[in-house]
Design a protein that fits this description.
The complex is a heterodimer.
Chain A: E1 4-7, E2 13-16, H1 18-36, H2 43-54, H3 78-82, H4 89-98, E3 105-107, H5 114-118, H6 121-134, E4 139-143, H7 160-163, H8 169-196, E5 201-207, H9 212-228, E6 233-238, E7 251-252, E8 255-256, H10 262-272, E9 276-278, H11 289-306, H12 330-342
Helix pairs in contact in A: 1-2, 1-11, 4-6, 6-8, 8-9, 9-10, 10-11, 11-12
Chain B: H1 8-18, H2 22-33, H3 43-53, H4 67-78, H5 83-92
Helix pairs in contact in B: 1-2
Classes of the chains: A alpha/beta, B mainly alpha.
Chain lengths: 349, 95
């Protein structure tokens, strides 16, 4: 029987029989259903996923008429800092708009955290002002809440990652609550500056990287920002599929934040005033691409059904079924995009 | 979706400003432009539409609206307040 070319979650090539592909797809959707307490994919959806995996082409494409839009995180420094081409960020945005046909982009500092930007906000605002004069597409300002930066020695707050192993639970929780207050203040300040500079929106990226307190900080900041600047668009992207309970007791709108999966995260984000929600589904590099894809589509489909706001699924290295490698293979990335849009019904990527 | 080659920037704007899901955002933009939702992703159709409305397009002709000029027209066509456009009006006394 002919084998089907696919990949492992780390990007390495893999040949599977049709039965093996179907087995992996089934296992992947069942894993998501079990973890997230959501419905697994139906038989017809799994069959279509199989057909996507088995397409005898390098790059897969979505059906005509189902095209969707893209947003970014750290979009303005992919060309310069990461591809290592000497180009300022404002020019990079123009390249994305006029050459790469991006639907939107976010401007951000290389130290992509709101706390780091606070001291240089006046200079960042000037870049945004220039960009807004030249750009036609929406340009957001992006950074991460990155609550860890508020801990000693970089910040003023005790480090909960050091306190927790010592059994100092109460102290660790207090430190996180203090960091939340400081982070909210910083994020609202940056949003105000970017609103004044003409930004179309603000992107809270990698929310939850430091656990539930990190998410709470973003939600509280977003609620305040939407009250102060109602016409400033807000996108919220997550750090992982599951919010870690580094604190464990934090709530927003009477919902405990720790332990939420994407479909519940989206509801909470929308209640804070988020306009676009960006869920993350982690890629398991020890499992196959079909397994990861079925799993990601299962989570995203439920998230899109539940979310009151548009969902832009994260599809980059190590998330959204994309293999965990610095140069994700086109065959895997395009199949992930096709499946997440056509079956998952993602509103964007 | 193709950004200013097609109508991706406009659809994204409706998502970001009004939290519209993809089909709703596409239909809204299509209605504003007088095309079908299907045509929004056709760079051949959309280039002519964008030229006629002067809302910005790649490899622009001389005299075409650029940057903030195009966004002023986009705000009018979509019936949307664009933050940078409001700022531009305020700074230039056009408010």
């Amino acid at each position: 029987m002919n084998k089907i070319f696919t990949r492992m979650g780390d990007g390495s090539p893999l040949w599977l029989s049709p039965d093996e592909v179907r087995f992996e797809l089934n296992e992947g959707t069942l894993d998501a259903a079990d973890r997230g307490k959501v419905d697994p994919l139906q038989k017809e959806e799994l069959q279509y996923l199989y057909e996507i995996i088995a397409l005898p082409v390098n790059a897969a494409s979505i059906k005509r008429g189902q095209e969707t839009v893209t947003s970014s995180d750290s979009g303005a420094f992919k060309i310069n800092y990461q591809a290592n081409i000497s180009l300022d960020r404002a020019t990079a945005i123009m390249v994305h708009e006029k050459v790469l046909a991006a639907d939107s982009l976010d401007l951000g500092n290389i130290d992509y955290s709101y706390k780091s930007v606070k001291a240089i906000m006046h200079d960042e605002a000037k870049v945004m002002e220039n960009v807004q004069l030249c750009a036609i597409m929406p340009v957001l300002y992006g950074a991460m809440p990155n609550l860890g930066l508020y801990t000693k020695p970089d910040g003023p707050v005790d480090n909960w990652s050091e306190l927790l192993p010592l059994g100092k639970i109460k102290e660790a929780r207090a430190a996180q609550e203090e960091a939340v207050e400081l982070a909210v203040k910083d994020m609202v300040y940056i949003a105000g500056g970017m609103h004044a500079a003409g930004a179309d929106g603000i992107n809270f990226d990698t929310c939850g990287a430091s656990g539930d307190a990190d998410v709470l900080a973003a939600l509280l900041a977003i609620r305040e920002i939407k009250q102060k600047y109602p016409n400033l668009g807000v996108e919220m992207g997550m750090a992982g599929e599951f919010i870690l309970g580094m604190h464990g007791k934090l709530e927003f709108n009477k919902t405990r934040i720790a332990g939420l999966y994407p479909h519940r995260q989206a509801e909470l984000a929308a209640s804070a005033g988020v306009n676009i929600f960006g869920p993350v589904i982690n890629t398991n590099s020890n499992r196959s691409f079909p397994w990861n894809l079925a799993r990601a589509v299962t989570f995203i489909k439920t998230c899109c059904e539940t979310s009151p706001v548009p969902v832009h699924a994260n599809v980059g290295m190590g998330v959204g079924a994309t293999p965990m490698t610095p140069v994700p293979p086109v065959d895997a990335v395009t199949r992930a995009a096709k499946a997440l849009i056509e079956i998952g019904k993602a509103d964007g990527l | 979706m193709g950004g200013i080659r097609t109508a991706g920037d406009l659809v994204l704007r409706m998502q970001l400003a009004k939290s519209m899901k993809i089909e709703q955002a596409k239909q809204y933009v299509a209605d504003c432009l007088g095309v079908t939702s299907f045509e929004l992703n056709d760079c051949s159709v959309m280039r002519e539409i964008r030229q006629s409305l002067d809302i910005g397009y790649p490899m622009p002709d001389p005299g075409a609206a650029k940057g903030i000029e195009a966004k002023v027209n986009i705000a009018r066509v979509l019936g949307l307040k664009i933050n940078a456009v409001e700022r531009f009006k305020e700074k230039t006394g056009l408010q």
